[in-house]
User: Fold this.
Amino acid sequence: MADQAGDAFNERKYTHDFQAEQSYHDMRDYKFTYPSLMEAQIRKLKHGLENWKEIALQGKKVFIWERQWHPTALVGGSTVLFMFLWLLDPSILTVVSVFGLCVTVSDYVIPSVASSFFKPEKWTARREKEFEELCTNIVLYKARLELTWSRYYKLKTTNRKLYFILTICGLSVLAWIGCTFNNLFLAYVLVTFLVLLPGMEHNGIISKCSEYVHNFLAEFLRQAKSKVDQEKKED
Assistant:
């Protein structure tokens, strides 16, 4: 009972109400109202990205592939970065330290440089809305990941066999991949996939692939079931 109540609370926590309102051009515009917890997370994220809002909007255009050359640029940047790592062959401690230095220097320099290029008076209500939508989408994706993880972990109490089968098979596959492929190559594939993921999601590639996999598995199970039924009839 406690697990069911907790899961219901998690699902309610990330739901939203859907209400219509009249827009400026007498069109039907839709506005989402979120729970107070999610609104607090959105406000916190907006405050944290306040000095980066211009850079964040420009980066959003690249990550959602607003232009045709954007995915090529993302793959090319990831490839060049890991090629340097392959050639230099630094230690893990060096990579972490250099990454931390880059983040620290960027956090100090880039907002100051950006303020000289992007004047505050050019920040319009439209750009503010885009920035708020960006922060909202980030919080929503975070909520989806938390819900997915909570539902998976809940299998430990609702369906222990399925939970342990999925966990053991998943970890075994990861162990085999780790033993088969180079660590740097795996990191390159993972980073490249992550930088391409927002664009694939925005352009519907993820949904198409999910639909294809779902249809393939459904057809495979249907054929397997029909084959088993046919063998039973022959016996």
Notes: The chain has one domain: 36-203.
